[in-house]
Amino acid sequence: MGFLHTWLLFTLVRAADPPCKLWETSDIPQLRKDGDVTIGGIFSFHNSWEEIMPTFTSKPERPKCKSLSLREFQNAQTMVFAIEEINNRADILPGVSLGYKIYDSCGSIEMALRASLSLVNGENASLLSCQRPNSIQAIIAETSSTPTIAISSTVGPLHLPVISHFATCACLSDRKKHPSFFRTIPSDYYQSRALAKLIKYFGWTWVGALCSDNDYGNNGMNTFIKAATELGVCVEFSKAFFRTDTREEMLRIVDIVKKSSSKVIVAFVSYSDMEVLLGEIAQQNITGLQWIGSESWISDMNIATGKWQHILRGSMGFAIPKAEIRGLREFLTKLHPSSRTDLYKELWETVFHCKLPSQQTVGSRSMCKGNESLDNVQNQYTDVTELQIANNVYKAVYAVAHALNIIIRCSKLDTNQRKCLENINNTWQVLNALREVSFYTETGEKVFFDKNGDPAARYDLLNWQQGEDGTTEFVKVGFFDASLQPGFQLSFNNISIVWAKNQHQVPVSVCSESCPMGTRKAVKKGKPVCCYDCIQCADGEISNETGYTGVIPKFNQLPPQPKCKDINYREFKFACTMIFAIEEINKKRNLLPNHTLGYEIFNACGFSNILQSALSLSNGQDDVTDKINCTKADTVQAIIGHSGSTPTIGFARITGRFQIPVISHFATCACLSNRKEFPSFFRTIPSDYYQSRALAQLVKHFGWTWVGALSNDNDYGKTGIATFIKAAEEEGVCIEYSEAFESTGSKTSITSIVDIIRTSTSKVIMAFMSHREIKILVDELYRQNITGLQWIGSDAWITDDSLADSQGHNLLIGSIGFTVRNAQIPGLGPFLQDVNPSQFPKSMFLKEFWENVFQCSLSPNTILRACKGSENLKYVKHSFTDMSDLRFINNVYTAVYAIAHALHNLLSCKQQQLPFDNATCAQPTTIQPWQVLHYLQTVNFSMNRGETLFFDSEGNSPARYELVNLQKVTKGTMEVATIGYYDATLPRGQRFTMNNVNIIWGGGLKTVPVSVCSESCPLGTREAVQQGRPICCFDCIPCPPGEISNTTARKLPDNFNEAKFITFSMLIFCSVWIAFIPAYISTPGKLTVAVEDCIKLGPYPEQELYTSPASEMRGATVVLLALLTRALNPCCALLSLGDAESQNDKSKHSEDRVVKVSRALTFNRRHLPIPCQGCLVEKYQSAHLMILAVEKPEAFSVQIVISRRPMILCLCEVLNRHVLGDQHKLEPNQTNLGLYKLYHSYFKHKRYRGQK
């Protein structure tokens, strides 16, 4: 039996032994009915909730739901209808009654999790007995993918089936993560590809893309873009939003849509998000767009009948085929508020806009008369003309009933029905039966599930057309069937299609029209391949074209616990470091005096194990001894873990429900900074938000503009590489390919990626993955003898010692990447060397660790030699006891201390502080996790080497990295050198620095490798971007007759006047010399200034600019305006003014008077024209120097060094007049505003106020 992949770590404080208690009482379901067998339901009866951000000065309140959803109410009532219909049938579950418990999630992940836990535990759990109530057999949930993922992840380890009627995210088909999930709606895997084929069918190659900012929208849109790109479609923009975003953010999205040139918009958006977006679009009256919709809103009557229907007229998209459910309308309309169900009363008041006597309804509504009836009401609740989604609920209930029928196998004649019900004793039996379910509905529709829990993928293609009465009608114009051959999946009927603005001709949406005969395409720089100019063919040329163990349970018996394998020494080291830190704290007198810390450490080598551990933590660890009293219940105050982002996301959502702090030492996904989803999450490792951007700057620094990108196929990898690609493209870097895979994936997926690497031309690969994936990859590269690559690594593998044991370890020599800074932990080495199985005799994994290290057996009757008892880790050279690299080990150590300091501050609460409600401190014997959360937010302490630890508002610690280089990798050992640093807490321009350590490059080379798609063009030629390729790939073609090029591919504006620029250069050169003469004469002291080129076409190496302090100037008015131009001279000369002796004596200049100037002014053709974005002032340590920069830096940057008493020339005015011309002129009002603010905010002397 192997050891572990990862650890889940817990820290707790032992107080007195209190009686057994529940965290909270379970919620009461909104709708319920008792039965022999109970089915759970979770629906979003309300669209939203009143968001209350917890301050943790009091127990967090439950969110208050608002805005009743008539459609969701219909879905829930359909579930009730189906259950009652089954109870009245003699052929299904005869003699057995079905009951239900239905909860409201309010569209909230937290509320959905709360409901799922209530369904698992039951709402009648006794506070005295702690007995587990009878469990439900299945859950029908949820309408959205994101809460469904949370529910499935939570109850999956309990083998409880979850059947969704509307959660379409393809991620839910992953049987390893969601083994108990089924659905009666097709996966978006098929819908996304169907939409891409639809776009291609109508010849639209230039489209915009919008999606909901959740799992449903992001996953669906990513799949669509990938499929569309493969079909030659270009996406002009892709933006995500959510209905709770600020109005400013929504207006920004609308502005992008308004300014875009594409006429087709693909909206992979939920119906509730679409309503918010359409409200803003209708207000600005944006019409004439062809909308292509996903199934969530394309058949939604509420949207179709809204005030924006004229905007959406002509919309098209795939929808679930509509269905008929006999008797449903009569059931829906017979509802009456006379029952004791509050939800029915709320529906009544919402529909009839009246007030019932017993309800506390706000507003000026009149009293209900008592004669209201739903029979004559036509709204989303009573409308049964479509029933796409309600039919999915109906089928889900029947699927559970048929599965139960398979298990029970009782007939109506059986006298002992209770005996039959005993056949159902475990939910895994229902899971197994669901896989075998196959039946037909009364309307003839076949219901079954494939191996992934998905139904057959069939869609109707709907077109929004105006009916005779002026209302919108959904007209079926085609269909898509994924079960057919590829060429026959999409088909159309003979009904004519109406397009945007009621047009009857297919709209055109292309970036560039097809080129005529005799011309060829030249892709526009900075634009996708669909955007090109048509240029004349050159002489002699012609163009005639236009345009883990991985065991998936079978559920025919109780699934066994997953068997862990592949011992992970680093994770074991993490666990022992946690123990060391706790024991060290327990010995301190100045930290938590008179209190001791304890710990529980879980081996969680699989995703389901992790969630089970989290649930065990939430419910308590000890067994029940009797019905009245429980054994001692440990009060868990915080969790340390997990090492992976994806499992951390899973269990942080569960424990966040109980406000238990989670502090990770290695989970870096930027998504975990979302305080709305993870309010109790902290980490002692920086977020990948910073690492990804640092890596992009690193690639740019070495001039690599053509790179490959690989990542884990999980949250850590996909989020990190997506951020890197975005940041790299902003730096002008092109990505040749981007692929993702998992260590548990098929062999084919690995070999296909290796094939891509082999055939690629880029020599630099950015690998955002874990040590497991990189080992598998380099081993395969080694077997195929693929060498000569420069690897850029993420922090998860760049310093991992286990890489030295891989076959392909030599291929990693020369790798560089960022990782957290190294550290020293005094005393840890001897502590680890003293680890022995006798310390934890019941620990099977410590026993296995010992046997693995010493190759002996602690058990009799094995083939290994017996351990002698004299084995000692002090005499073993092993990665477990190696103290040379404690980067991530220190994160665990720091996390324990963070918890200790939070508890110490909590227990040190003084009467004058009283942080909690009612002016109280926490009670030492009853410390609540949310109280620890409050103090964690404010911890601020220093560790051994003096660095301060604190958490920002998102729970992140300061982002500081070392840039490391793998200089030697041999079997079992690695040598890593620190070659630079990155500190995100410093001002921009000072964050990334290199030291003087020699770098070993890929393959052991001593020179920087080159990785470009195309070399710079020689004199007399120009760039022509290669068709269908990124802008970094171009051909060098001779200039036509009458034109000349004497530069190596400088990026100039199209109307750039070379002669005017040369003249301007000469004038400025002279003016600077003349302007400097009076300043030099009036300065009594010596002044030495090195002035560098200020206007340069393209980036150039970093230089240092030295100036004397302002005190030496003695009031002199000095204009240090470095505005000399290089013009055509490729050399970059330095102009020196002053005493040569003092100029050479650089040691006289203190560090606070050295300013790094990376570039003065960069013209970039791709970004011009661009308005001047205002002025940014960065204050250095010395008040005498600062940098004034015109931002954005990737487009236009001017840096001037000025003295404390300056006269400033507005550069934008000079540039507009002499260089840029009217077409590219900068906006002077914004620039002057920035300079004006500079005078008022920084210079205090009144003589400067009001100057511009």
Summarize the structure.
The chain is of the alpha/beta class and 1252 residues long.
Structural notes for this entry:
With 1252 residues, the protein is an alpha/beta fold. It contains 31 helices and 46 strands. Helix 5 (215-230) links the parallel strand 10 and strand 11. It is globular. Mean pLDDT is 77; it is low at 1-20, 125-133, 544-550, 621-633, 1050-1061, 1079-1214 and 1226-1252.
Structural class: alpha/beta
Overall pLDDT level:
77
Shape: globular
Q: Output the strand order for the largest sheet.
A: 11-10-12-13-14-19-20-21
**How large is the count of helical segments?**
31
- Characterize the biggest β-sheet: 8 strands, mixed
Classify the helix fraction into a percent range.
25-40%
The separation of the N and C termini measures 76 Å
What is the subunit organization of this protein?
Answer: single chain
Strand tally, please? 46
As a whole number of angstroms, the C-alpha radius of gyration is 34 Å
Itemize the secondary structure elements and their pairings.
Elements: E1 7-13, E2 31-33, E3 37-43, E4 46-50, E5 64-68, H1 70-87, E6 98-104, H2 109-121, E7 138-140, H3 145-155, E8 162-164, E9 181-183, H4 188-201, E10 206-212, H5 215-230, E11 234-241, H6 247-259, E12 264-268, H7 271-283, E13 290-293, H8 295-298, H9 301-304, H10 309-312, E14 316-319, H11 328-333, H12 342-352, E15 354-355, E16 366-367, H13 388-408, H14 417-421, H15 427-436, E17 438-440, E18 446-448, E19 458-466, E20 472-481, E21 490-492, E22 519-523, E23 532-536, H16 569-587, E24 597-603, H17 607-619, E25 635-640, H18 645-656, E26 662-664, E27 681-683, H19 688-701, E28 706-712, H20 715-730, E29 734-741, H21 747-759, E30 764-768, H22 771-783, E31 790-793, E32 816-820, H23 828-833, H24 844-854, H25 887-907, H26 929-936, E33 940-942, E34 948-950, E35 960-970, E36 973-983, E37 992-994, E38 1021-1025, E39 1034-1038, H27 1058-1081, E40 1089-1091, E41 1103-1106, H28 1110-1113, E42 1135-1137, H29 1140-1144, E43 1154-1157, E44 1175-1179, E45 1186-1190, E46 1199-1201, H30 1211-1220, H31 1228-1242
Parallel strand pairs: 3-6, 3-7, 7-8, 8-9, 10-11, 10-12, 12-13, 13-14, 15-16, 25-26, 26-27, 28-29, 28-30, 30-31, 31-32
Antiparallel strand pairs: 1-24, 1-25, 2-6, 4-5, 14-19, 17-18, 19-20, 20-21, 22-23, 32-35, 33-34, 35-36, 36-37, 38-39, 40-42, 41-43, 44-45, 45-46
Helix pairs in contact: 1-13, 2-3, 4-5, 13-15, 16-25, 17-18, 19-20, 25-26
